[in-house]
Specification:
InterPro entries: MULE_transposase_dom. Pfam families: MULE. The N and C termini lie far apart (79 Å). The protein is of the alpha+beta class. A hairpin with a 2-residue loop joins β8 and β9. The protein is globular, with a radius of gyration of 26 Å. The protein has helices spanning 2-6, 15-24, 31-46, 49-66, 90-95, 143-153, 171-180, 190-198, 206-214, 219-232, 234-242, 265-273, 282-306, 313-326, 354-371; strands at 71-76, 82-88, 102-109, 117-124, 130-138, 164-167, 185-188, 330-335, 338-343, 347-351. Helix content is 49%, strand content 17%.
Length: 372
């Protein structure tokens, strides 16, 4: 009955629903029999879990052969049992060079017959969509498994100073990143940090002020706001001071650009999307990841083909909002390439065009280099 009515569907009835379906047909069965029947039906049209592990080496070999540029690896333990698996599809590897140098990583438990953890590394494209880079399946989430996964990710995401890797404060991830990526910088997800901070400070407004604080751009503004924050919420301030260097969670002190990526929410949304797929046998899971990635890429490619704007839709929307907000500003030229901008005669800002500012910064850097 299950095979005939639900073949090809990711979501199938739970045992209680199966008991009701059978009762409506005049047959009474136990919860265990309903559960066992569901497992047998899964094995029929999704594949047997043991057989799936057996054909995994052949599947990965075919991925590399049929999907040029793909990177795969498989590690077995001393008893020839599954331990680690890595997979990055060729298109994902090729497209990374067009992404911002910010990569978020996260892990989520698998829910099938055998325990395991699905690891994900993701970037962000120009329209703020998640761009999955690589997948891993490991026996447990630990420093060793994360170190292995990141050592393979190096073939997709090279180690460089402008790279920012963002994760939660999992000790295994922290140790693995520092051990594998020596030049890149490691930042913490500010949402996870705020949830940990709530355990120390439950005062109203603390979380909101912290999130604002973390996103400030200028160091001078951050320093003032941080002192104000610590006076108002001393418990939270002590917690943040104990978390280590400010460059781990602040935009102002970040040694490389985090852009709009301050959390791991994006990669966690991928994990949430895979809620049902995480119960599949491993080869069926990997095939689901391939179909999901392909469907995303096809949708975004088709949208870009018919786009008529110079920038991506998300960026165009931001620029349009900022343009409309700035239409009422008054601009007065002070000297060449320096202007005074006022809004309703309440705020006055002296600024330079971006090009002039960049030229000035390059000149100062060159002077310091010559002096050294």
């Amino acid at each position: 009955m299950l095979v005939e009515n639900f073949e090809g569907q990711q979501v199938t009835p739970n045992p209680k629903s199966i008991m009701t379906m059978m009762r409506n047909r005049g047959v009474e069965i136990t919860y265990y029999k309903a559960w066992k029947g569901k497992q047998l039906a899964h094995d029929i049209f999704r594949g047997d879990p043991e057989q799936s592990f057996a054909i995994l080496p052949s599947y990965l070999s075919m991925v590399e052969k049929m999907n040029p540029g793909s990177i795969t690896d498989l590690v077995l333990d001393e008893d020839s049992r599954f331990k680690y698996m890595f997979l990055a599809f060729g298109a994902c590897v090729k497209g990374y060079r067009c992404m911002r140098k910010v990569v978020t990583i996260d892990g989520t438990w698998l829910k099938g017959k055998y325990d395991g953890v699905l690891l994900v590394a993701s970037a962000q494209d120009g329209d703020f969509h998640q761009y999955p880079l690589a997948w891993g399946v490991v026996d447990v989430e630990s420093t060793a498994s994360w170190s292995w996964f990141l050592s393979k990710l190096l073939y997709v995401v090279p180690d460089e100073e402008e790279l920012m890797i963002i994760s939660d404060r999992n000790p295994g991830i922290i140790a693995a990143v520092s051990g594998v990526y020596h030049n890149a910088h490691h930042g913490h997800c500010i949402w996870h940090l705020s949830q940990n901070m709530k355990l120390r400070c439950k005062k109203k407004g603390c979380t909101e002020m912290f999130m604002h604080l973390a996103k400030i751009y200028k160091q001078s503004e951050f320093d003032i706001e941080y002192e104000r924050f610590k006076k108002r919420y001393p418990e939270a301030g002590k917690f943040l001071d104990d978390c280590g260097s400010l460059d781990r969670w602040t935009r102002a002190y970040s040694p490389s650009s985090r852009y709009n990526i301050m959390t791991t929410n994006g990669v966690e949304s991928i994990n949430a999307r895979l809620r049902d797929e995480r119960q599949l046998p491993i080869v069926a899971l990997l095939e689901s990841l391939q179909r999901l990635t392909t469907s995303w890429f096809a949708r975004y490619r088709n949208a870009s083909i018919v786009a008529t704007t110079k920038f991506t839709p998300a960026v165009e929307s931001i620029l349009r909002d900022r343009y409309n907000a700035a239409r009422g500003y008054q601009v007065v030229e002070l000297i060449r390439r320096e202007f005074e901008i006022s809004a309703n005669q309440q705020y006055i800002v002296v600024c330079k065009p971006v090009a002039a500012r960049d030229q000035s910064q390059q000149k100062n850097q060159l002077q310091r280099k010559n002096q050294s």
